[in-house]
């Protein structure tokens, strides 16, 4: 079996001659329009030594204005070319510096082949090991190590052999099953497309040969998988659309839908605007089932013989992509293909030194860092180990406020814990318990600066409710820190965990049918959002007690502002740490208004 | 199956996946329809992606009032045949100001009648995602474009602040004020487009085929005089010449190429043989080396 489109990742820096190598590959396979080649004879980088009128091969793969000025490629650029055997090669070109590890991971995520450049005049450098480590982590199938600039070293075999031997030692700790070493010169054109006449001692393939000879791994017999992208509805028609990403589906096949675990048969396959009897890997199709089953966007359809286990706990490797560090306990959106669910990193086990491959203990992950983590999802997902399936073993993490893509993950395995815990259903439920008390269970979440008046308001509201015979309870952030949360400090990570625990306790109390008043600074919007996500829409009311920080500092009921001003409390909200004002509070109270007025505003909603 | 057919099949499947992802993710998606060959392919892919259901989004054409007459006729027929809703928008303030391809610089004209017009239309109809037919092989700054590409408030593109895009896991989410541009045929090349049109028997605009047309030669460019609004310089005259177009746009700004290609096969052969990048016939892109990137940051497609 062959794949008509092959994706190649190129790693290395401009100094290694990467752009020159790719440029030459493009020109020698006749993949560049003449006018584009002409323009590379005119434009010059600052400091370029290439004579005017000659082709500067390196200019063919560079992109944006600012980057050209700096003489480096910062982002990922894509370029298509035709291989001489007619197949299509899509090159993704990523920068190789350590501060661009994330860009390389992005480019590697879809690459079949990784081209790692080594500058022979400099030998093996840390960046080479880093590039190989990322290829291994991202599951790049074949790696070609191109040992470049041998023309400058008299095309000596011993230099090539030494570099190969040194790299093979490092490769033993990686998961790279297929590595090819090629001695070449991008500048002189040796072993790029044509065999070198200067290196008779090398009997292996040229760069082009080793790209053209790559084949994908075949699916095992009976395997077939597709994730549902879209439920397609037309007159008397309900189908499930998606792209098959492994194996084949045939009409009459018995299939299983995950996570519902229901079994049915395929009654119709639509591809190319007609009914077909079978469809294969990488085809976009619409499947119609014989019987009505629970199936929606994000669900996985697989052969009924496959044993897949949806889970809500996973071990995973994560590449952090964003300037804001990964925060333990914070809630992110996890997207995997068309599936999505809120998720929390419950443990950072260690981070990976991309240069040496060694693991060190860690409590957070900054941009460009790679770590091994445990992750908990709000709903079970059918994810496979990345080593078995790149397509069904990957996910990204998205910030819940900005919706930026902040992390990329590869599943190592699902954790049994999630699977063995099943939610016990009791017959007396939340609604019944609340009805017995003649009330509706609710959370009133009071957020605001220290000294803004949250506790005072909560206390007054509880008194009024009590007087009316209602069942309420106050969860006070400070009080809980003396017991349940005594192990937590005030870093953003600990605050996230603090809010998580308080919201879980509130959830239990709501389930008991109570009106819960939470008084907690909860300075971060994402943490408050996560708390809100635990409840039904009408159960949760976010109340922002808006009191200017100067007023809070004047009141200073606990003397904390004075202490913080002297530097005695790092991370004090409003002094050393920001308070993020709620973007969409259900109620905003002016903390300087009369207490009764504020209490009445809240009671109006509860009663 | 021949390797070229396999390539087209794989490209087609990826594009369909992206269109379905768009339809599933947005409240008000729209598909840009610019009447060219890429739009014809997009429209064909959209039919396939959702069959037997109808195409779930309208088509949007930004009409500068300077398009070839044959484009407008073709547009109305194509939308009708596809059973899709067609929205046509023109920047009326631009028209009222009297700006045209001759009294303003090309870049200013493009900004007003195309970029601003597009922003007006997206705002007016509150489209949260716009599907476009740009390809990475067209131009250098497009090579770095994402498939799902976020536009900040005001439709601005910040090439330095793009979301990382990994695997087939597309982040389609939008923060308040943001909109999305979606490029389902990013990985296609010009030859792929023509081969696919041939394989699928997709109807394309007659302007792509060589025919004797009224041409004036200005500098190196062959301009077809489509109506009497084109002012001739002293010494210029209109000659009938056998030409075709590689891209379609505003007629005074879209140069023709001398050609005898009257069938799709002949066009594919010609595209292979000429090996000139297709945007070279677009007058607006040549203004300076990085003009496309600048236009894109302002909201151009």
Task: Walk me through this protein's architecture.
The complex is a heterodimer of chains A (607) and B (301). With 607 residues, chain A is α+β, with helices and mostly antiparallel strands. Chain A has four domains: 5-212, Rossmann fold (3-Layer(aba) Sandwich), CATH 3.40.50; 224-303, Elongation Factor Tu (Ef-tu), domain 3 (Beta Barrel), CATH 2.40.30.10; 311-416, Beta Barrel (Elongation Factor Tu (Ef-tu), domain 3); 430-606, Rossmann fold, CATH 3.40.50.300. In chain A, the strands form four sheets. Chain A has a six-stranded mixed beta sheet, with helices on both faces. In chain A, a hairpin with a 2-residue loop joins β17 and β18 (339-352). Chain A is globular. The model of chain A is unreliable at 63-73 (pLDDT under 50). Chain B is α/β, with parallel strands linked by helices and 301 residues long. Chain B has two domains: 3-189, 3-Layer(aba) Sandwich (Rossmann fold); 194-287, no CATH class. Helix content of chain B is 35%, strand content 15%. Chain B has eight helices and ten strands. In chain B, strands 3-2-1-4-6-5 form a six-stranded mixed beta sheet, sandwiched between helices. A four-stranded antiparallel β-barrel of chain B has the order 7-8-10-9. In chain B, β2, α3 (69-82) and β3 form a beta-alpha-beta unit. In chain B, α1 (3-25) crosses α2. Chain B starts with a helix and ends with a helix. Classes of the chains: A alpha+beta (607), B alpha/beta (301). Chains A and B meet through α2, β2, α4, β8 and β9 of A and α1 and α2 of B.
């Amino acid at each position: 079996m062959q794949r008509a489109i092959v994706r190649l990742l190129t790693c290395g820096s401009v100094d290694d001659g990467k752009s020159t190598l790719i440029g030459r590959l493009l020109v020698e396979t006749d993949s560049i329009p003449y006018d584009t080649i002409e323009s590379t004879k005119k434009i010059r980088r600052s400091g370029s030594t290439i004579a005017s009128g000659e082709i500067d091969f390196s200019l063919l793969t560079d992109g944006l204005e600012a980057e050209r000025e700096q003489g480096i490629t910062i982002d990922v650029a894509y370029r298509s070319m035709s291989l001489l055997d007619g197949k299509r090669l899509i090159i993704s070109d990523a920068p190789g510096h350590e501060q661009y590890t994330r860009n390389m991971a992005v480019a590697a995520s879809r690459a079949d082949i990784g081209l790692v450049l080594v500058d022979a005049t400099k030998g093996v450098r840390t960046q080479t090991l880093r590039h190989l480590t990322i290829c291994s982590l991202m599951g790049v199938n074949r790696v070609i190590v191109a040992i470049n600039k041998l023309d400058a070293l008299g095309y000596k075999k011993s230099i090539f052999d030494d570099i190969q031997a040194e790299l093979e030692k490092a490769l033993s700790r990686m998961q790279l099953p297929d590595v090819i070493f090629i001695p070449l010169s991008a500048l002189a054109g040796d072993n790029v497309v044509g065999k070198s006449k200067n290196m008779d001692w090398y009997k292996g393939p040229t760069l082009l040969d080793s790209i053209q000879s790559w084949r994908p791994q075949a699916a095992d017999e009976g395997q077939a998988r597709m994730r549902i992208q879209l439920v397609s509805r037309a007159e008397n028609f309900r189908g499930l659309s998606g792209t098959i990403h492994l194996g084949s589906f045939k009409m009459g096949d018995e299939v299983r839908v995950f996570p519902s675990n229901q079994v049915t048969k395929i009654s119709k396959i639509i591809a190319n605007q007609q009914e077909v009897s079978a469809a294969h890997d990488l085809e976009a199709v619409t499947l119609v089932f014989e019987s009505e089953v629970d199936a929606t966007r994000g669900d996985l359809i697989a052969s009924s013989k496959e044993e897949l286990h949806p889970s809500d706990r996973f071990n995973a490797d994560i590449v952090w992509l964003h300037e804001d560090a990964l925060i333990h306990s914070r809630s992110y959106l996890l997207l995997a293909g068309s599936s999505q669910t809120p998720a929390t990193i419950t443990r950072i086990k260690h981070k990976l030194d991309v240069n040496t491959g060694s693991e060190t203990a860690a409590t957070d992950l900054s941009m460009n860092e790679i770590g091994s983590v445990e992750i908990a999802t709000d709903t079970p997902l059918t994810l496979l180990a990345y080593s078995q399936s790149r397509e069904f073993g990957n996910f990204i993490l998205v910030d819940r406020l900005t919706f930026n893509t902040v992390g990329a993950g590869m599943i190592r395995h699902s954790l049994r814990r999630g699977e063995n815990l099943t939610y016990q259903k009791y017959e007396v439920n939340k609604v019944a318990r609340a009805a017995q008390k003649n009330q509706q269970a609710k959370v009133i979440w009071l957020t605001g600066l220290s000294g803004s008046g949250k506790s005072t308001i909560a206390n007054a509201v509880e008194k009024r409710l009590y007087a009316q015979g209602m069942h309420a309870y106050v969860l006070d952030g400070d009080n809980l820190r003396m017991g349940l949360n005594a192990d937590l400090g005030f870093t953003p990570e600990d605050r996230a965990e603090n809010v998580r625990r308080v919201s879980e306790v509130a959830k239990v109390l709501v389930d008991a049918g109570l009106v819960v008043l939470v008084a907690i600074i909860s300075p971060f919007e994402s943490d408050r959002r996560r708390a809100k996500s635990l409840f039904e829409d009408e159960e949760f009311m976010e109340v922002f007690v808006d009191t200017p920080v100067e007023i809070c500092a004047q009141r200073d009921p606990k003397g904390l502002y004075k202490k913080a001003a002297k530097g005695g409390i790092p991370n004090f909200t409003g002094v050393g740490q920001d308070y993020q004002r709620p973007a969409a509070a259900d109620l905003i109270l002016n903390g300087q208004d009369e207490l009764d007025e504020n209490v009445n505003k809240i009671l109006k909603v509860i009663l | 199956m021949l390797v070229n057919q396999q390539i087209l099949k794989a490209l087609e499947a990826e594009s369909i996946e992206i269109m379905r992802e768009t339809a599933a993710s947005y409240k008000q998606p729209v598909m840009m329809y610019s009447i060219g060959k890429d739009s014809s392919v997009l429209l064909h892919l959209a039919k396939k992606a959702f069959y037997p259901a109808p195409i779930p989004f309208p088509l949007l054409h930004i009409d500068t009032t300077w398009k070839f007459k044959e484009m407008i006729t073709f547009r109305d027929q194509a939308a009708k045949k596809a059973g899709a809703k067609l929205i046509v928008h023109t920047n009326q303030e631009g028209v009222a100001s009297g700006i045209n391809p001759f009294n303003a610089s090309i870049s200013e004209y493009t900004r007003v009648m195309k970029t601003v017009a597009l922003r007006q239309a997206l705002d007016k109809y509150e489209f949260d995602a716009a599907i476009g037919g740009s390809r990475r092989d067209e131009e250098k700054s497009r090579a770095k474009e994402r498939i799902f590409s976020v536009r900040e408030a005001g439709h601005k593109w910040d090439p330095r602040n793009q979301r990382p895009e990994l695997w087939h896991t597309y982040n389609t989410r939008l923060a308040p004020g943001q909109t999305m541009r979606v490029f389902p045929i990013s990985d296609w090349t010009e030859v792929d487009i023509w081969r696919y049109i041939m394989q699928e028997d997709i109807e394309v605009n007659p302007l792509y085929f060589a025919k004797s047309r009224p041409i004036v030669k200005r500098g190196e460019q062959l301009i077809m005089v489509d109506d009497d609004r084109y002012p001739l310089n002293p010494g210029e005259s209109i000659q009938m010449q056998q030409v075709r177009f590689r891209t379609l746009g505003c007629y005074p700004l879209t140069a023709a190429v001398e050609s005898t290609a009257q069938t799709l096969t002949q066009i594919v052969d010609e595209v292979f043989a000429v090996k000139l990048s297709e945007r070279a016939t677009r007058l607006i892109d040549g203004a300076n080396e990085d003009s496309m990137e600048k236009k894109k940051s302002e909201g151009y497609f």
